């Protein structure tokens, strides 16, 4: 049978007995006459009792061993009792601390004026079953005569306890039925923060939620990525391990193995765990267990002579004095862990000195303490078989398990818990009628205070003790604060618990942990931080590649791909270099990429820029010539206004090519295509209108065709050009508004080079823009081709036909060349097409006219133009 199954069986047995006793008790009470006495079928005597106006309970693990009764089912079993020879002096000190706190409160002239606190302190024996029995006895009373449960509700207002989380879970579920609040001094399980399940639970010790966060930060801080995990077979160990695994999900730390120390420990189970520890490469082992669970395990651990393990202890055993002996140092020296906050209780040492068998002759717990400390009995008997002693021996430093008051931790939590109840009760008694927190603004009655009324004030209590603030949050938790403890060699060869840092949960995230690393002594008496990893670190320039089927902490190192780097050790992945950078040969840093675009400084850019400016200059010269000779027949005969507009548009065509040269920018990308499209449509529109005018003039020269000229007057010509150009302007506007061209860094051509180009944004928009220009050009070409054989006197169609043939040939060749050209060469092709087509139009349309105007002025006469004469 497993330890968990045995524990469940024991729990079930005691629960059945408890229910049976309660049922028999209820039946006997109901059947008895009103005058008959209440019969208590079983009893569990407290360790210490003091009467008072208000009674609180205390539950402490004064013993740490159970005497299991025979559970053969043939007769009613006796109750489970604690083994009287295994008293824990440390827990006994906690119980005395509660007594001291109550005594101080009762002597305080300010706190609880005219009222006193009483207490009932029980021994839980460190197990949930006996803790359950203790709290039920606490509720019933210690004898038949004073058993309040026979007639009315319990007079118990609150409980201080318990030590272990498993005990607190059981007790809280019992006490919440009576709405009695409980303040734990050492139960850290995060599960107890659930207000729906444990509405009356409070604690003055930080929750394991904070402890596991501290553990996770500690592992990350020392780069321990491969660790083992041991836990006790109880709620504390289960929830702490679960919380730690949850926290480690967001770190690089992996758990190599997770083992459970059985509740009922056996040597065989311990050796199996040690075999796992010995075979694992994890050299750091975390332990979530209590002192009683670790004691038998560590005894067997030392017999196996296992060394080199760096222990990381939870606060449940990190300051266990039972492990401070010199025999433990070779195996546990260097242990590091988190302990609850240290405090100071000024009168504690003197108070502990007053406890001896002569002062308490009838208290068995005091007698057992003496037997544990001195190995003698103040009241010898045949049962104890110990030598006699006076019972007045002096408590010395050697009795540190009981007398150690230099740095109380759990002891201080007990002290704070009692004062929290006292301050809450004090605030309750100060309530003024009509201003209370309860129904109709009422207050609690001082002679009949209900536990749930005290809980209301406990939830809101806030006071200072020894300079420390004590308060509870909505979950009943207190302020998270831990000391970091390191086990070092003491002056006498024993283990000394040295504080080497702290964890302050009130600090900002990432700033909670403060460690004095130079003061830490590690396992094996080493000053170097132990290494606990599954795989060696990956150097910069490589990344971790997790091995299939293994945790992420076990990996291979793979060099980064081209264009990616890792500049840190143990990088999980290689990061891509920024857009303008490329990886170095070592793949550990990024270097700037070479950039490429059609620049003004390279030969190709210089050549295209020169041609563009030269073409613009020629347009200006031709325009000047035409303006100067605007009254001559050849200029007037070829529609001077359209010629001026055409020269102006050609000048824009030459200039717009400059927008394609230089580093692409948002405004140049947007303007280049709009300027190109509108300039060329304006140019081709002028040519189209000139062609239409030629046809109209020829038709008007025929009989009956005079009316055709009225449709091609100056106004109609301007309007036609404006309308045709406006259509292109509208196309550009829609294109820019819907999918505007923007600069684009193209890295597809060369991985280590950036090619700057303008992305067209919308391919459809670009195609429509070119298509519209092509439509007008083809239409002009067809009309000019039809009019090419008209009389020379009126005919410019041959020149238009030739110019449009050049224009169309250039742009038809442009499309495949543009698509197949990479990077800056695509811009060069487009610029070349613009310059070539513009130059073709300029030369074809205006070259012959300028030749006549400048070189053959004798032909620039009306007679020649009208009569085809040659002089």
Please provide a written account of the structure.
By secondary structure, this protein is α/β, with parallel strands linked by helices. The chain has four domains: 3-205 and 409-471, 3-Layer(aba) Sandwich (Rossmann fold), CATH 3.40.50.2300; 208-314 and 320-345 and 480-519, Rossmann fold, CATH 3.40.50.2300; 542-592, no CATH class; 606-867, Up-down Bundle (Rhopdopsin 7-helix transmembrane proteins). Helices cover 43% and strands 14% of the residues. An eight-stranded mixed β-sheet has the order 10-9-11-12-13-16-17-18, sandwiched between helices. Strands 1-5-2-6-7-8 form a six-stranded mixed β-sheet, sandwiched between helices. The longest helix is centred in the last third of the chain and has 35 residues, at 666-700. The protein is elongated. The model is unreliable at 1-36 (pLDDT under 50). The chain crosses the membrane at residues 603-626, 646-662, 674-698, 719-739, 759-787, 799-819, 831-854. It is a multi-pass membrane protein.
Strand content: 5-15%
Poorly predicted ranges: 1-36
Provide the CATH superfamily of the largest domain.
Response regulator
The number of strands is 27
Would you give the CATH topology of the largest domain?
Rossmann fold
In what order do the strands lie side by side in the largest sheet?
10-9-11-12-13-16-17-18
Mean pLDDT: 82
Total domains = 4
- What's the N-to-C terminus distance? 132 Å
Provide the gyration radius in Å.
49 Å
Amount of helix = 40-55%
Classified by CATH, the class of the largest domain is Alpha Beta
Supply the helix-strand structural class. alpha/beta
Our count of helices gives 23
Shape: elongated
Question: How is the biggest beta sheet arranged?
Answer: 8 strands, mixed
CATH architecture call of the largest domain? 3-Layer(aba) Sandwich
